[in-house]
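Case 288 in the screening queue. Each case pairs one protein sequence with one candidate compound; here the compound is NAP. For every case the pipeline is the same: read the inputs, emit a complex structure as tokens, and attach any notable structural observations.

Predict complex for case 288.
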Amino acid sequence: MVKINGRTKLVGIVGDPVAHTLSPVMHNAAFQALDLNWSYLPFHVEEDGFNDFIKWATTIENLVGLNVTMPYKEKVKPLLDELTPQAEILGAVNTIHFQEGRLIGHNTDGRGFLVSLKKDGRRDPSGKRALVIGAGGAAKSVAISLAIAGAKEIFIVNRTKDKAGRLAELVAKSFNCPAFGFDFSDDLKERVQASELIVNATPLGMLTNEVPQFFEHVTEKNFVYDLTYSPKEPKLLSLAKSKGASGIDGIGMLLYQGAAAFEIWAHLDPPVSVMKRALMDSLKKKGV
Ligand code: NAP
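Case 288 output:
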């Protein structure tokens, strides 16, 4: 049982929508496991009320922090006092820490991805080529993390080629990692074959049943990290496995970005196995 009394410390998630979020389950399980008098709440806030919500949140003395999800990860930046270098580079914030009257913006997505890639996937991107599908917020976190982790070369493939080009340019210029942008109509056979790691950072195969045509070149030499997750194996991941490739879904990234936020707020080691079990149980119950 989550206990709530006059001394309860609060954290939460703000977004529109938030009904689908698994974060409360994961964090509340962690608080309970460590017997902390903390509670994690969802805040469904519409666009025109967002700035007022953040202003109001700063007046709540026992509010320690917030996760920020779509569509506010970029919009929240000017409302904060300080951004960590990671959040600054990504231009997006997924975790706010209310610290002695100051609002500090963090981004734990990239860390979540890398920790999961290394721990769950047992892959180290250092010195390797990677192909990232997508050029949105998640793809940016992934591509920058891979560059920081020492990737040799990164290919960014996106439906909108301009965005792929811009992200590739940012990665190449800011992190000295060769990076190139493509769209789905480009001939990508050699790039797929050269990339030990392929990351899907789009809803492809999840919200839509579409599979990009270049995916036919995937072989047992590729490792596929699919950021999407559900109780069923994501379609791109399952297709890759049918071609002999190995890979994992994005539940680990969700877990470790949450664990990093927990650490920022509570200054304690997060009980990762408890958080993971809570996530998996909740996913199973949702049955989507
Ligand atoms: P976003 O900023 O809106 O970017 C969406 C990306 O997907 C863009 O590259 C977009 O291409 C592409 N896309 C969307 N619909 C498409 C379609 N029908 N066909 C081809 N490409 C399509 O979203 P995001 O935050 O980056 O999230 C991307 C995915 O990653 C989502 O599925 C999200 O659930 C997942 N994610 C998972 C985690 C995790 O913890 N596991 C964390 C963050 C995100 P255009 O540029 O052409 O529009």
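Case 288 observations:
- The radius of gyration is 19 Å.
- The mean pLDDT is 95.
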